[in-house]
Amino acid sequence: MFDKKESAFTVLVSACLGLLVGGLIGHFGTTTISEEDHKKIAVYQKLVEDKWLAEPDEAQVILDLISPTNLRNNLKELSKRPHLAGTPRDDELAILIRQRFEDAGFDTSELVPYNVLLSYPNHTNPNLITIMDGSKNVVFTSKYKEEALHEDDEDPDFVHAFNAYSAPGEVTTQPGVGVIYVNYGRVEDFEKLEELGIDVAGHVVMARYGKIYRGNKVLHAEQRNATGIILFSDPRDVAINSTDPKDVYPNSFWLPGSGMQRGGVYLIKGDPLTPGWPSTKNAYRLDESDVPLPKIPSQPIGYDDARVIMEKMGGPPPPEGWVGGMEGIKYNLGPEMLGAYKTHTLRLQSHNFLRNSRSYNVIGTIKGIIEPDRYVLIGNHRDAWGYGSVDPSSGTAQLLETARVFGQLVKTGWRPRRTLVFCSWGSEEYGLIGSTEWVEEHLEKLQERSVLYINSDSCLPGPIFEASASPLIWDSIVKITKMVPGVRDGKTVYEEWAAYHLAKNKTLPEVSTLGSGSDHAPFAFYGGIPSVNMNFRLDKNKYDISSYPSYHTGYETFYLVDKYHDPGFRVIQGCGRIAALTLKYFADSAIIPYSLQQLSKAIEENLSLVTSNGNGAKLLEIYDKFPLLEESAHNFTAATINFVNKLDLVKSTLNPVMLRSVNDQIMKLERVFILPTGLPGRPVIRHAIFAPSQFNHYGAAGFPGIADLLYKIDSLQGDELIKRHKEIRRHISDLTIVLQKASDYLEDFNVI
Q: Minimal CA–CA distance to 221: which of 163, 297, 289?
């Protein structure tokens, strides 16, 4: 579906410019051309010139300039010390990045501070899980940091294992009652336990990492009145060959038994104390007691410690598919302990604390020569839970090299048509804080002027290209990947990408819609700014796991990347090449190369999906005007087709003003999908059509408000059911109006 050589817009503008410039030269060719007329022609040509098409050699220059050696040196510097948000090393890297932007010759480069609420563990009183026998003797104590296994693993500033924003507190089980195993902690996992007659209320639960965002695991446990949650990485997900030392880090990229995944568990994005507003110096801040932070303690552990707990658990056997990879462990559900441990108790202690901290964004710009008030942005976060060699420093290394390459072009006299904005975000790991605060502070300006936001959280961990984006960007991503040399043995990245998908799914690759989990979220879901998130991941034909094994652990080191994930740095080079060409393509194309028909197609397909399995009939029963929503989706499809076709009719009248008008019309189209009050129950998620799933913030969903409102509706009765029906009717009406507005937005400029 992505074999188009050029979008309709690109083809059109090329023809238009040829006709216009040729006509002008023909006209002036019949008369004497004065110096003033020469200047007018030059200005006109510059205003309507498509720099992407006019500078074909520049793309190859960019490809050649991105250096694996520079990328390796960048990563080595970025990951040599831990750089948790709000720490001195994080500030040092912010200053380093600003200096790199200045050295590249950027027009502006600044540190942008925000005062935000962050969460930390107590290094003098570590979070622990202990087991005591009947005489109150401690027979087991969990580790609070990884064992040093390689020469660069140990650092005195490495943060202890914790989950940010997890509630402090202490929970102790009754004698002979340990924990309840809840598999991955998904909604369906808790529902399965309910089917089996197991109630987690009043108990500590234990969930393995993977499948969904850890914050959703904690919320699901809290909603069912669990008293605490222990999270662990299971060998089936992080050490699939074996847990023998010869098969794990430092002898491979698989995770050793003491590896612990840190991470945030707060679901609302941005500074917790200033929701919806930037956390600037004089901003009003909520009291900490008024912030809906998690109410139960949670703590991550490694699978070595998980084994000690789970080998003592009794209760029913696990359902099919719940057994992990710890050999000799039955994965019993609990909560009862086995007979030998009937007097034992388990205690979960969390000593996390909150602190107001300064966190920097670094923002650098290269001013556009024709449309300086139109922005093409590229960003990556800087903070890490440890060394962060993959997340985020592989992406930061790419960002710095991309900045150097564009700075080198500028020093030769080149300038982009539109302004390039380079962004290094702070405190992303805590909940996209730096990017969210910046978007909130500059929302009106960004909505008025932004063409595209490119996010590259991490360029690794594997050789398989992956992208999620607004459907407006899908065709462009495919076009760019066909231009970039392969990172393995293929001629291009697209060729490798296609070969992988043909082997896995027997289909050509497709770009997906966006989930959350990184800094594109405030742009896409709060501001309605078309965005793309790209990286290279592990080959799921070989390793069908949720993430790379060392994710957010003490073993995510420079050695890990240099030795295993990307020796030679070809993958990060490919990531940089794709990012840089995408940046130039959207900065320099005369008409913004959006794919309007991909947008309308995705809308229709997602509406069909959300109304499948009988949901369409259910919605019609609740609201007799539901067919109007389907009709409005069809109308939008017709409007996009008509808009693209009508552009062909304006060739003879396309001029700088017309070009600007057409670009504004398509650039701001997705803003129409923003609901001022947000989705039902989710005020900071405002995109009506594409947004993260309510039950997994990493996952994408089409028409998420409908899916949210239909969830468990059959279990509601009385006033609750009446209220839900009202919410559904209201939301369907909102969606219908929004889609009709989008169709109207594509009408001729003079039509209101």
A: 297
Q: In a 10 Å sphere around its CB, with 0-12 CB exposed, 13-18 middle and 19+ buried, how is residue 39 labelled?
A: exposed
pLDDT at residue 4 in the model: 39
Q: Which of 321, 351, 381 is the last residue of a domain?
A: 351
Q: How confident is the model at residue 252 (pLDDT cuts 50, 70, 90)?
A: very high
Q: Do 726 and 621 share a structural domain? A: yes
Cα–Cα dist 190/196, whole Å? 10
Residue 3 within a domain = no
Those residues with Cβ within 8 angstroms of residue 68's Cβ, 6 or more apart along the chain or in another chain? 568, 569, 570, 572, 573
What is the count of structural domains for the chain?
Answer: 4
Looking at the domain assignment, is residue 660 inside a domain?
yes
Torsion of CA 727, 517, 545, 320, to 10 degrees: -30
Nearest Cα neighbor of 23 from 35, 8, 41 is 41
Give the side-chain half-sphere CA count within 13 A for 354: 18
- Domain containing 149 — which CATH number? 3.50.30.30
**b/e 438-462 (16+ beta carbons within 10 angstroms → b):** bbbbbbeebbebbbbbbbbbbbbbb
Amino acid, res. 143: K
Full residue range of the structural domain in which residue 638 is found: 596-745
Residue 445, CA distances (Å) to 3, 365, 438 in order: 35, 15, 11
> Which single residue is written with the structure tokens 């989705």?
679
**Nearest one of 142, 208, 203 to 176, comparing CA atoms:** 203
For residue 717, tell me if it sits in a domain.
yes
Cβ count within 10 A of residue 144: 20
pLDDT, tens digit, 9 for 90 and up, residues 281-297: 899 999 999 999 999 99
Side chain identity, residue 63 = L
Q: How does DSSP classify residue 460?
A: -
Given a contact cutoff of 8 angstroms between Cβ atoms, the answer to whether 530 and 360 are in contact is no
Give per-residue pLDDT as tens, 7-20: 444 444 444 545 45
pLDDT band at 27 (very low <50, low <70, confident <90, very high): low
Same domain (yes/no): 91, 173: no
- Using an 8 Å Cβ cutoff, are 384 and 393 in contact? yes
Matching residue, tokens 């809906």 = 292
d(CA 21, CA 49): 9
Q: What is the pTM of this model?
A: 0.93
Q: Report the mean per-residue pLDDT for the chain.
A: 93
Helices and strands in the chain, H and E counts = 24, 19
Does 130 have pLDDT greater than 50? yes
How far is the C-alpha of 212 from the C-alpha of 217, rounded, in Å?
Answer: 7
Q: Which helix (H) or strand (E) holds 692?
A: strand 690-692
At residue 180, φ and ψ (nearest 5 deg) are -110, 125
Residue 751 located in a structural domain: no
572, 644: one domain: no
| Range with lowest mean pLDDT among 44-58, 70-84, 205-219 | 44-58
**Range with lowest mean pLDDT among 350-364, 449-463, 578-592, 646-660:** 646-660
C-alpha span between 340 and 178 (Å, rounded): 13
509 and 609 together in one domain: no
| Radius of gyration (C-alpha) of the chain in whole angstroms | 27
Question: What tokens does 329 get?
Answer: 């462990």
- How wide is the angle at C-alpha 747 spanned by C-alphas 369 and 744, nearest 5°? 110
Cα(first)–Cα(last) distance of the chain, in Å? 35
